[in-house]
């Protein structure tokens, strides 16, 4: 399949279809993460949870954009979705950095224990310091770490949101 053919097919899709595709992909990635947690047995670290939250809000915002499209307001939801996708990419990029430099990690309690024992102003900095779970070497799919897959997913979905916003 040539690049030109892919571009023509994407041009044929409307903004609503692209927004729905982003929402479906985001929800599918959350489902895959839940499968890996509950069936495969990979426990998520706090950064993984933040990425799931970002995918959830990306799905919600793109569903709202699809609902409003082509009426006014769809672009606002699209911009908000793009910001969430880029924020999720930032969290995933930080996670990849921690995974590739485990000496930066400070082992600490899990997300639930932190939320129960500390105010939110202290929880967020602790999350981004990472924990031993953030560098789990078994969290790999086809030779690529799960945070790297998540980063690629956020960046790809951000590009699709931009393509949807470019549609009239």
What attributes characterize this protein structure?
74% helix, 2% strand, globular, two-stranded antiparallel sheet, Bromodomain-like, mainly alpha, 168 residues
Secondary-structure topology with pairs:
Layout: H1 3-12, H2 15-40, H3 46-68, H4 74-100, H5 111-117, H6 120-129, E1 140-141, E2 144-145, H7 146-166
Helix pairs in contact: 2-3, 2-7, 3-4, 3-7, 4-7
Strand order of the largest sheet: 1-2
Number of helices: 7
Instruction: Output the CATH topology.
Output: Bromodomain-like
Name of the CATH homologous superfamily? DsbB-like
CATH class: Mainly Alpha
CATH architecture term: Up-down Bundle
SSE string, helices as H and strands as E: HHHHHHEEH
CA-based shape: globular
**If you compute it from the alpha carbons, what radius of gyration comes out, rounded to the nearest whole angstrom?**
17 Å
Mean pLDDT: 80
Q: Bin the strand percentage.
A: under 5%
Give start-end ranges of low-pLDDT stretches: none
Describe it for me?
- A two-stranded antiparallel ribbon has the order 1-2.
- A hairpin with a 2-residue loop joins β1 and β2.
- The protein is globular.
- The chain is mainly α.
- The protein has seven helices and two strands, in the order ααααααββα.
- It has one domain: Up-down Bundle (Bromodomain-like), CATH 1.20.1550.
- The model has no long low-confidence stretch (mean pLDDT 80).
- The longest helix is centred in the middle third of the chain and has 27 residues, at 74-100.
Short description:
The chain is mostly helical and 168 residues long. Helices cover 74% and strands 2% of the residues.
């Amino acid at each position: 399949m040539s690049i030109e053919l892919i571009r023509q097919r994407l041009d044929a899709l409307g903004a609503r279809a692209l927004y729905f595709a982003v929402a479906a992909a985001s929800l599918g990635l959350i489902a895959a993460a839940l499968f890996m947690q509950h069936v495969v047995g990979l426990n998520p670290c706090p950064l993984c949870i933040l990425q799931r939250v970002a995918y959830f809000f990306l799905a919600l915002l793109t569903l709202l954009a699809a609902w409003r499209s082509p009426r006014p307001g769809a672009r606002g939801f699209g911009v908000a979705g793009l910001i969430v996708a880029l924020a999720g990419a930032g969290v995933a990029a930080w996670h990849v950095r921690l995974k590739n430099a485990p000496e930066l990690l400070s082992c600490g309690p899990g997300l639930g224990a932190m939320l129960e024992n500390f105010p939110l102003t202290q929880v967020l900095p602790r999350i981004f310091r990472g924990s031993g779970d953030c560098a789990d070497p078994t969290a790999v799919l086809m030779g690529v770490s799960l945070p790297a897959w998540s980063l690629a997913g956020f960046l790809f979905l951000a590009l699709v949101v931009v393509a949807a916003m470019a549609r009239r």
